[in-house]
Amino acid sequence: MITVSFSPQNFNTMGVSVILTAVDKETATVTLNASPGNVVYGTAFTEPSATVADSIGEHSFTYIYSGILNDGSSTPYPASATKPTNPGTYTVTAVLDSATHAGEATSASFEITKKDLTWNAGAVQNKSYDGNTTTAIATNPTLNGIINGDTVTVANGTAAFNSADVGDGKAVTGTGWGVDSASAHAWKYNAPSGQPTFASANIARINQAALTATADPSGPLTYGTDTTVTLSTTGGSGDGAVSYAVVSGPGTVSGSTLTITGAGNIVVNATKAGGTNHNPMTSADITITVDARIIPNASIYVTAPVRGNTPTTSATILSGAVFTVSAVSWDNTEPYFTGGTEYTVTVTLTANANYTFTDGLVTNTVINTQSATITNNTGTTVTLSRTFAATEPNTVPGTSQSFTATAGNGQVTLSWTTPANNGGTAITGYELSYGLTAGYAQAWNAIVGSGAGTTSYTVTGLTNGTAYTFEIRAVNSEGEGTEATATATPIVPPAPPPPSSDNVDDSSGSGDSGGTTSGTGTTTPIVPPTPTPSDNGDDSRGGASSDTATETLHPTLDHPDSWTGSGDAVWRINAEFSGYIRLILDGNIVDPENYTVTSGSTIITLHESYIRTLSDGTHTFRAEFTDGYALMELTINNTSDTNTNIPQTTGDGGMTVDISDMTASSGNMTVWIIILVGLSVLGLGILSVLIWRKRRQVKGTD
Hints:
mainly beta, Immunoglobulin-like, six-stranded mixed sheet, five-stranded mixed sheet, disordered C terminus
């Protein structure tokens, strides 16, 4: 109770007693406007805020926090105005501080989450190859992201290479690394995801086990009898390939095979490559001994003494070419074998490095196919001797006998017999020179394939009706003999007579055709076509027996069939350029100024200026070589007009055919022959009709 005294003016003092009664504060509506929101451990959260709906005068708010710690044990966080900082789930309540009003806001929830940790990379030690992937840790990986001085330790794991093979900068992988959950503040953090990384490291090669090389057979061997040796190895390590090498001595290696190339000591070793994980390894050298081979025989030729000739101080090895001739001498004291009748030659032979002489050589050694006497034998050299009788010197052959030239159609066949005197040595062949008799000049060429027994030869590609001169001579080792000469003129053989006709009056004096006098029509001889390069050769050249020489028909690789007024004509012949002799046109030698000859194989270029001098029609060219010939045909048409070749009738009922453009070539000679034969038959038919009409007229006058 409160007593109040007051004295109003003009009144006595009065006392008033007031009784106060205590009542509760008025309730106000509080609203929490801002919640702290979720944050990560170590991050400050947003301050909460609240408002009151009524106007209540001076006031403030107190924020009360409570919750559960996320420490794995759900430790409570008691209600407190102290802000929480550790991971957990919390609520915050705003409480109104006012003299007249009271109230609090609805609580808001928020969370402080654990902080994520990451790895700092570790490192391992380099190592040498041991066949496994394990490795020692050089530097442990560490945790990144620890704050506030918290104590969090690493739970150690291991590291290993991705493969066990040798290599630099090889990848390394960790296993079993994590956070030690027993450390004081581990509960405030999330462990790093995955395993820590490690810096790359190296695995070095190691040496192989000892390598040993072996040879089979191992020796001693004999040159010429033993030719190859098989090499092999034992020991070594890894997957490297093995190779072999000749360090010294007469041998070569291919793969694991040693080929012996001579007598002596062959030193060989083996090397096994390093392969994937090892260093190369080379074996110790091994030596294979190869003995020299005994010379089985020796056959040599010494030029026999010829009276008046200089002594020959050389010899030719005929067989057993495993030695050399080191000296040849004669016992004659006079020069040029002019004294006695017998002379002894002494020959010294030196064995090649891979061979040796023995006493057994006596019965197997010959000089000029006769046994020689051994006067000295050291194993490396041997001295032989043999006695010769001097002979008279050789000369060139005599003149070929019975030389004749028989004319034929575009060719001449030559025949002869061997010279009576061959000069003391065998005839090796014959040479021929021929040309037009008019202005003839010798031009000798060997008859290819001729020998001592050759007695005939046929020259083709000649011009009928033209005289030719031929010369033949025999050849031996001393040179060319004296020539024999003959002449001949190729001729066209007479054509066979046409068949007789019963309708022809043999007694008639003449026919309208003007070509018969005894009942037979005139017939133009048909000359056989000249062989072309597509022929297999001229059978008339012989070659069927050993006594007849043959010529080779060289094919023409590139050639023109015709020439129509411009450009050179070029032939390419499959023959050696060095053997070219001359070019013949229709049997006449062509002046070399009118053409050029170059190699590849043999190219003949006929100049345009010369072609223009030739008449229209088909011409046969013959290119002659030392070993044969080639035939080419060229159809020349110097005019630009083209004939139609259409048969036309004459005024008297006969028929003429324009054949000016029907020139023969290597492909249509047969057509030519058919046309000529057809015209002959047609002429005979027309002649028969005219004779028959003549008889009718004569009978009518009777």
